[in-house]
Amino acid sequence: MTVTTPGTPSLHSVDDHGRHIPPASVARLTIYLRALNSLLAEGIERVSSDELADAAGVNSPILRKDLSHLGSYGTRGVGYDVQYLNRQISIALGLTQDWRVGIIGAGNLGRALAGYPGFGSRGFEIVALFDADQLVVGSEIGYLRVSDVEDLEEVLDRTRTNMAVLSVPATVAQELCDRLVAAGIRSILSFAPVVLQVPPHVQLRKVDMSTELQILAYHAQRAHEPDLDAVSRAR
Fold first, then answer.
1. Is residue 47 located within the same domain as residue 136?
2. Which residue in 56, 120, 144, 146 has the fewest CB atoms around it within 10 Å?
């Protein structure tokens, strides 16, 4: 069994040519892709490594090293073809595949996720939404009708779901995760406030907002420490 750790993929990503991409590089590739999409929207056709690195908030050597995992797509003195690099990163991240997402849990977070318009433009189609509350089952959220979680396996099969989001209480998260795995789901994103266990062949990502806030608080505190030291020395 494998246990999730926040912010770390359980396996390296592998591109279409069998190259392994380190997890840290995978995370930054998503940032480069967002920057490239913005450049495309502005009608920009070519970008230098320095310009792309600046747009992504990293330094040029890191960007060039990350992109080297995909191959050599830049031309010295000319830079990168924005549309072509966008396509290559999308292929490496698996975004050219048909990702059909089921959301388990139609509470406030699940509803917000189901209604988020940015998923479609990034290659993710929300095809199913589930809940256990019979007062919620059958209601419509956007273009989706909430299904009973008791019918999870049947609906997953009918909608050809191949990725799932868990937005449920900790007490039921592992049970539902096990059902997803048994139903053939190999990619799961969990917002449940609990550590889940999955087989090695299942990719599980955990988003723990309380942990992220704690990390943010730590860095905010560190940012003020020089001021506190100056006050102490003045005394």
1. no
2. 120
Maximum mean pLDDT: which of 19-23, 109-113, 115-119: 109-113
Helix (H) or strand (E) holding 221: helix 209-234
Same domain, 107 and 80: no
CA–CA distance, 210 with 207 (Å, rounded to integer): 9
Supply the pLDDT for residue 220.
87
**Domain range enclosing 201:** 99-210
Asked whether residue 2 carries a pLDDT value surpassing 50, the answer given is no
CA torsion sign for 190, 194, 195, 200 is: negative
pLDDT over 60 (residue 13): no
| Coil/strand/helix, residue 87 | helix
Closest CA to 176 of 103, 115, 116: 103
CA dist 62 and 32 (Å) reads: 12
Return d(Cα 23, Cα 127) in angstroms, integer.
28
**Domain presence at residue 141:** yes
User: Does residue 77 surpass a pLDDT of 80?
Assistant: no
Which residue among 41, 73, 92 closes a domain? 92
**For residues 55 and 193, what is the distance between their CA atoms, to the nearest angstrom?**
33
pLDDT at 161: 97
CB 146 within 8 A of CB 130: yes
Select from 186, 188, 189, 184 the least CA-distant residue to 202: 186
Would you say residue 118 lies in a domain?
Answer: yes
Both structure tokens of 178: 């096990």
Q: How far apart are CA 36 and CA 89, in angstroms?
A: 10
